Every structure is written in structure tokens, then in C-alpha cells.
Amino acid sequence: MNILNNETVKFATRSAMTFGEALCSAHEQAMQLDGSVFTYGLGVDRTGAIFGSTKGLLNQFGPDRVFDGPVSEQALTMLAAGAANAGMRPILVHQRLDFMIYTLDQLTNWISLWRFKSAGQSSMPLVIRAIVGKGWGQGPQHGKSLHSWFAHLPGLQVVMPSSPTEAKGLLLSSIFSNSPTIFIEGRSLYSMKEDVPNEPYFIKLGKAVVRRAGSDITVVSFGSMVPNALIAAQKLEELGISADVIDLRTISPIDLETVLKSVRETGRIVVAEAGWREFGASAEIITAVTENLFSELKAPPRRVNWPQSHLPTSAPLEKQYYPTSDDIVDACRKTLDLR
């Protein structure tokens, strides 16, 4: 199996894959590359196969490396911790991020600080995939995105892919990193489809990518809000506004250098985040910008976030709840004083 690098990936053969299929490809290739990688979680070996993201893995690798578990998030998480500490590379899949709250003791008091407690002599190279629900009445118990909670903890990587191509490369990098990683997936991205390299490739964790170059305003986003940011940039272009769109890819570690470089050129920033406004990742990004570039800003930074409220179950209310590309356009227009 050939492993693509930054140059060869540009010329790689590709196949059309959905977000779930790209994740499944990453699982399959990681398990082929390293016999210590295994996948488990509620439903990974059943018909739905976590929205297709683990489809066929059981038949290919057998029940020793692909298996279900009890409805006990605490036990499943400590299995990952123990296996990783013993030299394995486990991938635990949660169908909903909300129920990871049951595992805060394991994540906070064991997994996140293990390398620190061992003075760097031991690590837990595990990945916990968690899906943020959206649509069809998910409601307040199935749609929370708690990425900022996990990013607040030293010792955890928090990865948030925005497309099928990003999902495959970032998951492979997460699996083969030597740090515990929370890999957060927006359920709304699962309908996305694009051409993805067939061979394995790795996307550097902690390095943002400029998804669209621009000169008038910087739009920073990550995860499921990136597609909205790109649509907004297209709408802004029709208004004669050039937006520089940055996809952070990871919020821990976070690539502030790329953000600051862009804002130095544009003098303006809007941050679009699929999460609550107060004490969120967008606040941290804007704080860093104002601390470093206050005198260079041409306008106050703005944020586009969820309302500071729990998620409604009703479809009409849900439609009003989630910000759209139009909200990003409006924030950019106000920043440019084009109300």
C-alpha cells in the first residue's frame, strides 16, 4: 500500500466518497497498516454501521478487531485508555457526542493527563469519534457540540473535519498520532460527497488551511460550519467583497499563526462556530486576535454562533436556531459597515 505525501496526493487516483465512506476508508487503511488498531463502540458491527462509517470492517477484520460493547460509556472509554496504555491504538465510536459526558472522569482525570503524570514516558494513542446530531428532531439531548469543553483540557487533541477529504486525512493522522484525540463529526456533513484519494494520506494536525483566498475580510471556521462559510464567501463575492476563508481543522492544537497572518492583511475578522456563543472557541480566537493585532484592526471582530439556548426538537424552531450562510454574510457586511 502506497502512502501519499503532500506532493503525490495532488496526483492521486480518487473515488467519489461520502463523509461516512471516507471515514470508513480511513478505518480500513489504518487497520491494514497497523495490527494494533481496532474499532469498537455501540453499533459498529451492526447493519447501520454508524451511518456507514464502519461498514464492512467486521467481515474484513473479524470480531477481535471490530466489536460492539455494553451501554456503558465509562467502561468503553476506560477500555480505550487501558488498551492504549498497553501499546494498542483503539478507535472508540460514539453515535452521539452528548453521552460522552458520562466519561468526563475518565477523560479529565486519566486520559488527558497521562503523558503529564508519566513525565512523557507513557502515552495513550487513542481516538474517540463522536457525532453531533442535527435534523429530524435531535433535540437538546442529541445535538450538543461540546468541542470547547474538550479543547479546554490540556493533553487532548480536538479535531473537527469539514468534508470527506478532510475527514479521511485527519482521522488517519489522529489514529497514528501519539496523543489522545477527540474527533468530532457534524451529522449534517454525512450527506456531503466529493472525490477522495484512494490511498492513505495524512493531514497535519494543528495546521489550518486557507479554503478560499481573499483580501477584504477574514472568515474563520471549522467543522460543520465551514461549508456555510464557503457559501457565504461566494455570496460576498457577488457583492464585490473578497473573503479569506480559513478552515482550522483542529481547535486543539489551534493554528493561530495562520489566522493572525490573514487578519494582518484584511484588518477584519468574523468567526463562524457551530456551538454556543459564550465561552466558546470563537471567543478564544477573537481574544487572540485582539491581544496580538488590536491596533491593526479596522473594525471590531464579530461572531456567528448558536443562540445561548438548548436545541429545540421542533423542525421549524430548529430551522430558526441554526445559523446559515446568510448570517455569516450579514456579519461580514456589518464588519465592513455595509448594512
Please explain how this structure is put together:
The chain is of the alpha/beta class. It folds into two domains: 13-197, Rossmann fold (3-Layer(aba) Sandwich); 209-335, Rossmann fold. Helices cover 36% and strands 20% of the residues. The chain contains 13 helices and 14 strands. The chain has helices spanning 19-33, 49-52, 57-61, 73-85, 104-111, 114-117, 147-151, 164-175, 226-238, 256-266, 281-293, 315-321, 325-335, and strands spanning 14-18, 37-41, 66-67, 89-94, 127-132, 157-159, 181-186, 193-197, 209-212, 217-221, 243-247, 250-252, 269-276, 302-306. Helix 10 (256-266) packs across helix 11. The model has no long low-confidence stretch (mean pLDDT 93).
Per the CATH scheme, the topology name of the largest domain is: Rossmann fold
Oligomeric grouping of the chains:
single chain
Would you identify the CATH architecture of the largest domain?
3-Layer(aba) Sandwich
Rounded Rg = 20 Å
Percent strand equals: 15-25%
In DSSP terms (H or I, runs of 4 or more residues), the helix count works out at 13
Describe the strand arrangement of the main beta sheet, using strand numbers.
Answer: 3-2-4-5-7-6-12
Q: What is the 3D shape?
A: globular
Order of helices and strands: EHEHHEHEHHEHEHEEEEHEEHEHEHH
